[in-house]
Specification:
two-stranded antiparallel sheet, single chain, 2 domains, mainly alpha, two-stranded parallel ribbon, Protein Binding, DinI Protein, Chain A, 75% helix, elongated
Length: 185
């Protein structure tokens, strides 16, 4: 038995308000769990490995830049008494620029709109298209009126996992499509 929170109740109320005939007719509802798809589809696993590799690369580069900042600061502290005011000012400006560059790098690569997120979207989009096509095929072939994703938090009020979970069927369809594609190549 799958129970979700208040957003699920709101969804049910909206469905009953806008589709009152659905309450009287036989409605076939199913759901999938996209988290299970992500865990078990090799394509998603491959993307996760690639994204993790990129994340480690960017984090290492950020650490390297941070180490250079520490070295700049240590060099400044060692030489501070021997430097002219002009040289001190120049080194301080160089340090501040390096700090700014580190912050920009971190934001550009690892930030919420950074390269890592964009790469994840770029790599995932073709897989989502395949999943959506297989999901539509499954829904039409088995006459489902509604299919929800329980991983999207709040799309379902109640579902009997033995009766309505389509995740395994969807994985089978995707595997069939993958095998057909491999056979055609």
């Amino acid at each position: 038995m799958k129970r979700l929170g208040v957003p699920s109740i709101i969804m049910a109320l909206l469905l009953s308000a806008f589709f009152p005939a659905a309450l009287q007719a036989d409605v076939k509802i199913g759901y999938i769990d996209s988290e299970i798809l992500r865990e078990r589809m090799p394509e998603f696993q491959q993307i996760q490995r690639e994204i993790e590799r990129l994340r480690q690369q960017y984090e290492q580069e950020a650490l390297d830049r941070q180490s250079k900042l520490v070295k700049l600061q240590e060099d400044f502290q060692k030489q501070e008494l021997l430097l002219s005011e002009a040289k001190k000012t120049q080194m301080q400006v160089e340090f501040e620029e390096a700090v700014q560059q580190l912050q920009e790098f971190t934001q550009d690569k690892l930030g919420p709109n950074g390269e890592l997120i964009r790469k994840n979207i770029e790599l995932s989009s073709p897989i989502f298209e395949k999943v959506n096509a297989a999901l539509e095929e499954l829904a039409q072939a088995e006459s489902y009126d509604f299919i929800f994703d329980v991983a999207s938090n709040g799309a379902i009020v109640y579902a009997d996992p033995e009766r309505y979970n389509l995740t395994e069927s969807l994985l089978e369809k995707l595997e069939e499509a993958r095998e057909a594609q491999e056979a055609g190549q």
